[in-house]
Amino acid sequence: MTADIIDGKAFAEGLRGMVAQQTAQLKEGHGLIPGLTVVIVGEDPASQIYVRNKGKVAAEMGFLSDTIRMPEDTTEAQLLAVVEGLNADPAVHGILVQLPLPPQIDEGLVILTIDPNKDVDGLHPINAGRLASGQSALVPCTPLGCSMLLADRFGQGGMSGLRAVMVGRSNLVGKPMAQLLLAEHCTVTIAHSRTRDLPGVCREADILVAAVGRAEMLGADCIKPGAVVIDVGMNRIDLDNGKTKLTGDVDFEAAKEIAGAITPVPGGVGPMTIACLMVNTVTAACWAGGVEGPA
Question: How many domains does the chain divide into?
Answer without folding.
Answer: 2
